[in-house]
Design a protein that fits this description.
single chain; alpha/beta; Purple Acid Phosphatase, chain A, domain 2; 7-stranded mixed β-sheet; 5-stranded mixed β-sheet; 19 strands; globular
Amino acid sequence: MSIQPFPCSLHSVHAVFADSREWVRYCVYPVQVHDTEGAVTRTFVAIGAVVIGSISIVVAQGNNGMGGINGNANAAYAIGLWGDLPYSAVQESVGLPNLIDDMNSQKLAFTVHDGDLKTGNAAPICDDALYLRALGWFNSLDAPAIFTPGDNDWVDCDRPNNGAFRSLERLSHERQILFSKPETLGRRRFAVDVQSTPLCLGERNDAAHTRFSEACVENRRWTYGRVTYATINAQGTCNNRCGDGADQQEFEARNPANIAWLRDTFAEAKALDSVAVMLIAQANPGFDRNDATRAGLTRNPNTLVQDATVADPDGYFDYLVALRNEVIAFQRPVAYVHGDSHYFRIDRPMLNSLGVRLENFTRVETFGDNASNITLTNDVQWVKVLVDPNSREVFAYQAQIVPANRVAVPAP
């Protein structure tokens, strides 16, 4: 179902009559408009919602452009995090509907999937139907749904068992299907900021595989309840620098765009006096030498330089340096959410250059993968984040084990 554009002037507020049989429409207006690093950023005040059929558009930017439940920027709320799902037919047909039902049974402000719509080395292939099915999953969520791509969605699509597609062409197609508008997915929706400057590369589905400059529209940002959130297209597989179809040209365009978006996000958070920042990406970039899920892929946690024993090129050094600098300068809580290595955890792996742990940085890795004939839906789970703008740490985390997806120990 298409979403109609907001009908009101961006410089005035006009009430519009309601027709409950079809839709209810109110207006939004910007309280801030500025251009940062070539991308227009708009912050909106919520006056109401657009409801069309079964989908409603709710602009979540509330008091002082900082959003919140019912326009109250100080109200506590909950969000849902998930990713690296589904990885098998049973996960897609059984586990995923159970997970979506479980999310829909709880009052969530929004949900975010941190990438990977499929396994990286087997069916289903990366055909157009994959992205259309994913669109259906996200639009079956009651809460606004945000998604950031994973390497299995595009980087690894050139593998023969994924359909031997052109990886960059798949990303361009994914942008058209899942990121075509500056708003969330889901049954309820709100507007988001988009990295609209054509800093990334795209590729056409033609015989010449024509490449062109394309906006990194998958990079999105929104502020809700005095917390600034952003998604960043940072990928596994060395951030597209290794693997079957390593693409240095693509990396050299997207990586600086990601870093610019990262810096702009913290600048936005400071300008809004946000109490915290949450970043969501697919890649586990590796923070130290202690991560068993990245055996052999280690880096010096003080310098962030990848160890010389690692044969693959490092796709994350500049990105991690920029991230650490911004976290230190921001001082307030920062959560970094990722998938990729398929091990649910919440820890504090980032150190400063002297080897001292950054107290305001938390890494959150969502559940995912482990899709075998034995485990089945065992890891089709999600993470609830309780967000309280008035609390010192802002974020509190709860693992959500979907009762219908339990395998080893049945639900009581």
